[in-house]
Amino acid sequence: MGRLCIVLAVILMVSAISLVTARHQSRQLFVAVEQLEDRSRELDIEWRRLQLERAELARNARIDHIARSDLGMVTATPDRSIYLDHPVTQQGGRP
């Protein structure tokens, strides 16, 4: 009977230690999940900010302003355009 009590006590101690270990691991995993969810929210906010920035950089008015001021470009007018005529061949071939 004494041996049975000792074996049961050892089993109880091992079970208690494994329970404490499992709970500790569970808490660590919960903390890791919370940290990853926070990081996910931060990345989502950064993604939205970058989308707004991209839309701002791609605005036509901004591109036009940069083309005129930095590159010195002007709007093409008919008097500044050169038109080329394509010669017509008789048999549909190339000249």
Strand fraction equals: under 5%
Q: Helix- and strand-based class?
A: mainly alpha
Average pLDDT rating: 89
Shape annotation: rod-shaped
Using the CA coordinates, give the radius of gyration.
Answer: 38 Å
- Main beta-sheet strand count, sense and barrel state: none
Helix content: 55-70%
Which H/E pattern describes the elements? HH
Strand tally is 0
Please give the alpha-carbon distance between the first and last residues.
113 Å
Spans of at least 5 consecutive residues with low confidence:
none
Annotation field: number of helices: 2
Tell me what you see in this structure.
- The chain has 95 residues and is mainly alpha-helical.
- It has a domain of 49 residues.
- Helix content is 69%, strand content 0%.
- It is built from two helices and no strands.
- The radius of gyration is 38 Å and the shape is rod-shaped.
- The model has no long low-confidence stretch (mean pLDDT 89).
How do you describe this structure in short?
With 95 residues, the protein is mostly helical.
For this entry, give a set of tags.
single chain; 2 helices; 95 residues; mainly alpha
Architecture blueprint of SSEs:
Layout: H1 2-57, H2 60-69
